[in-house]
């Protein structure tokens, strides 16, 4: 019964709770009681659990209303989505969803045709080729065509 010990020194809290709830066998109960005779820490935890157990048993018992019980035991109503997608409609909706996903994935996978950037347009828009510009004009640079 060494499984009752945590780190070889104390009885586990679950075992103490089971003792208070009366869920241990007679031999297990005897073993735990012997340990409680020697261990003040476990005895303190057991006393605390006993106090809590006493407080819980003193709480008034509530009876659930009949409507609550009958509602809890009644099978759930079918949802609007299950009504709309009943029968063959669910296969059509599933097929449409799969098709939309397939088209989206294909659009991401298929490589696009490479286009060269319009260097001439860029060059004409951003660089002044006129000579004689005043200082502070745009920077000139040369483009080598290969």
Summary keywords:
single chain, 146 residues, mainly alpha, two-stranded antiparallel ribbon, 7 helices, 2 strands
Structure in words:
The protein has helices spanning 13-20, 26-38, 40-58, 66-73, 80-84, 89-109, 119-126; strands at 5-6, 10-11. With 146 residues, it is mostly helical. It has a domain at 2-58. The chain has a two-stranded antiparallel ribbon with strand order 1-2. β1 (5-6) and β2 (10-11) form a beta hairpin. It is elongated, with a radius of gyration of 40 Å. The N and C termini lie far apart (87 Å).
Q: Report how far the terminal alpha carbons are from each other.
A: 87 Å
* Beta-strand proportion: under 5%
The largest sheet, given as strand count, sense and whether it forms a barrel, is: 2 strands, antiparallel
Low-confidence stretches: none
Number of helices: 7
What is the average per-residue confidence, as pLDDT, rounded to a whole number?
78
- What structural category arises from helix and sheet content? mainly alpha
- How many strands in all? 2
Q: Within the largest sheet, what's the order of strands?
A: 1-2
Summarize the structure.
This protein has a two-stranded antiparallel sheet. Helix content is 56%, strand content 3%.
Q: How is this fold's topology laid out?
A:
Elements: E1 5-6, E2 10-11, H1 13-20, H2 26-38, H3 40-58, H4 66-73, H5 80-84, H6 89-109, H7 119-126
Antiparallel strand pairs: 1-2
Helix pairs in contact: 1-3, 2-3
